[in-house]
């Protein structure tokens, strides 16, 4: 039945819920369950606070979906979109044409990314950026006369997007079950120390664990043969997998392995980029030297959909000087309005010194308060880097025992958070945060109080 012809419910919330329920299939959602509960309708936002259609306010500790880094309602970004849409709402970047926003954005990205990265290929999302990664990696080795280098090594529980190629690159078992995996992609272990510690039920030295997991990459390259391996892809800190902060030894070893073998190193900066870790990119924090860097989300603070792949000079030299035509691109590659907003966002970040403020002031305070949440009896570990954090809910803190999945501890906690005016995401029983970078210390205190209260209520529910 067409809902427009149906009588509309009394208040706007009910109306939007009923239209949504009748006509909108949501991403990563059980549609039947949602129909039984009705969607929460978010109507407006300012700074780091959201307001729903009943006027209830929430502190958005997820920055939308890891993206609204500069906060909601930024006039500079609104003006950039408004001005550009009047001047030139669309033109393509195919057939030897360009436009000022794409040219400006490329130059700005070259300025803020690591010094050896000076070319950008634009997309509309992180998933398209990772599809582009596959195309660039394969093209690179083809041009160099090594077409047998085809395999891309990724990690279990990684998230690289939701298109067929990006979900294949990702290591999410539930996505593979429904969507399969395209050929030439394999997955190695992830550096999730806490998960392994709980699984083992006995002591596990983090640094030794980090080295062992890194070794699984070298072992996989040896097993496949270096002549078949094209690239290794990883997020600096796994985001959607549960904000997994590796032991220090992990990246030290992985960097050595990437340098030792003739493979491309792809660092997925879709979450860690644009100040999230207190550095412009996770690659800066960890001193990674990526050959390719997919990015999106914080690039425009989520105001408009834009992503891209930053290409190192080593790869660009081959593509540009030896490759001929690259048969790849999207209608909206470098979309002028999206590019203008992304450029305005980067300039705003520079003008407000946000990366430095996060590194020196806000992130240390957030991590301190997150550490205090670690004292809660329900919390087995609280960890984080920069403006990223995870809180592991456990049944037995002293003995590292997780809850049985059926208890749905994370879902219970997330519901209490919403009721208490806080948006936290639950990955299983891991509560995660990725708040806007413009969050102030006083907001962090509000976050702490609402989170503690939600943990208390969850604890009480789970004891019953
Ligand atoms: N790489 C990484 C590291 C991501 O986190 C993508 C690529 C894909 O980006 P797009 O723009 O195509 O969504 C992502 C996206 C979650 C969640 O539930 C995380 C993402 C997307 C949707 C939900 O935490 N990350």
Describe this structure in words.
The structure is a single chain. With 464 residues, this protein is of the alpha/beta class. The protein has two domains: 40-73 and 353-463, Aspartate Aminotransferase, domain 1; 75-351, Aspartate Aminotransferase, domain 2 (3-Layer(aba) Sandwich), CATH 3.40.640.10. The chain is built from 17 helices and 16 strands. It has helices at 12-23, 31-37, 63-66, 75-87, 100-112, 126-143, 164-169, 173-179, 193-200, 206-224, 248-260, 282-286, 313-322, 336-351, 354-373, 409-419, 441-463; strands at residues 42-46, 49-52, 57-60, 117-123, 151-155, 185-188, 229-234, 264-267, 292-295, 307-312, 379-385, 388-396, 401-402, 422-423, 425-427, 430-433. Strands 11, 12, 13, 15 and 16 form a five-stranded antiparallel β-sheet that branches. Strands 1-2-3-14 form a four-stranded mixed β-sheet. Strands 6-5-7-8 form a four-stranded parallel β-sheet, with helices on both faces. Helix 6 (126-143) packs across helix 13 and helix 10 packs parallel to helix 11. 3-[O-phosphonopyridoxyl]--amino-benzoic acid (PXG) is lined by residues 65, 125-127, 130, 159-161, 235, 239-240, 268, 270-271, 296, 307, 425.
Rg, rounded, reads: 22 Å
CATH topology term of the largest domain: Aspartate Aminotransferase, domain 2
The end-to-end span amounts to 43 Å
CATH superfamily of the largest domain: Type I PLP-dependent aspartate aminotransferase-like (Major domain)
Bound ligands, each once: 3-[O-phosphonopyridoxyl]--amino-benzoic acid
Uncertain regions: pLDDT < 50 for 5+ in a row?
1-10
Strand count, sense and closure of the main sheet? Answer: 5 strands, antiparallel
Supply the helix-strand structural class.
alpha/beta
- Tell me which CATH architecture of the largest domain applies here: 3-Layer(aba) Sandwich
Instruction: Characterize the overall form.
Output: globular
Whole-number tally of structural domains: 2
Compute the number of helices.
Answer: 17
Beta content: 15-25%
Helix content: 40-55%
Q: Which class of the largest domain in CATH terms?
A: Alpha Beta
Mean pLDDT: 96
Number of DSSP-assigned strands: 16
């Amino acid at each position: 039945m067409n809902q427009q012809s149906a009588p509309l419910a009394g208040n706007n919330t009910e109306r939007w819920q009923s239209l949504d329920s009748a006509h909108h299939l949501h991403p990563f959602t059980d549609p039947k369950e949602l129909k039984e509960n009705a969607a929460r309708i978010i109507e407006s936002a300012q700074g780091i606070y959201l307001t729903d259609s009943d006027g209830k306010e929430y502190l958005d500790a997820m920055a939308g979906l890891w993206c609204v880094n500069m906060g909601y309602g930024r006039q500079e970004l609104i003006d950039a979109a408004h001005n550009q849409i009047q001047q030139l709402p669309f033109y393509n970047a195919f057939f030897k044409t360009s436009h000022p926003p794409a040219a400006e954005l490329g130059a700005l990205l070259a300025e803020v990314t690591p010094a050896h990265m000076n070319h950008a290929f634009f997309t509309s999302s992180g998933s398209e950026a990772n599809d582009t990664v596959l195309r660039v990696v394969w093209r690179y080795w083809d041009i160099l006369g090594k077409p047998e280098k085809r395999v891309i090594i990724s990690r279990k529980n990684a998230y690289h997007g939701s298109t067929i190629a990006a979900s294949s690159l990702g290591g999410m078992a539930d996505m593979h079950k429904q969507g399969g995996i395209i050929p030439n992609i394999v997955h190695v272990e992830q550096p999730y120390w806490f998960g392994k510690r709980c699984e083992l039920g006995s002591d596990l030295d983090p640094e030794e664990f980090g080295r062992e997991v890194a070794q699984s990459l070298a072992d996989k390259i040896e097993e496949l043969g270096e002549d078949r391996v094209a690239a290794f892809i990883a997020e600096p800190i796994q985001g959607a997998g549960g904000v997994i902060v590796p032991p220090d030894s992990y990246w030290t070893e992985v960097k050595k392995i990437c340098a030792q073998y003739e493979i491309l190193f792809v660092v997925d900066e879709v979450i860690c980029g644009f100040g999230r870790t207190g550095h412009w990119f996770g690659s800066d924090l960890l001193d990674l030297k990526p050959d390719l860097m997919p990015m999106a989300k914080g690039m425009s603070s989520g105001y408009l959909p834009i992503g891209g792949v930053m290409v190192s000079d080593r790869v660009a030299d081959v593509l540009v000087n030896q490759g001929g035509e690259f048969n790849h691109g999207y209608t909206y590659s470098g979309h002028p309005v999206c590019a203008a907003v992304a450029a305005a966002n980067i300039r705003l970040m520079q003008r407000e010194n946000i990366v430095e403020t996060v590194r020196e002031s806000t992130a240390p305070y957030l991590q301190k308060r997150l550490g205090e949440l670690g004292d809660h009896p329900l919390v087995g570990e609280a960890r984080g880097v920069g403006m990223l954090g995870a809180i592991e809910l456990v049944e037995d803190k002293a003995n590292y025992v997780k809850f049985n999945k059926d208890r749905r501890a994370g879902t219970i906690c997330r519901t209490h958070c919403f009721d208490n005016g806080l948006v936290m995401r639950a990955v299983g029983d891991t509560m995660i945060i990725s708040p806007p970078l413009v969050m102030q210390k006083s907001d962090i205190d509000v976050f702490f109080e609402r989170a503690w209260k939600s943990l208390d209520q969850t604890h009480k529910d789970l004891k019953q």
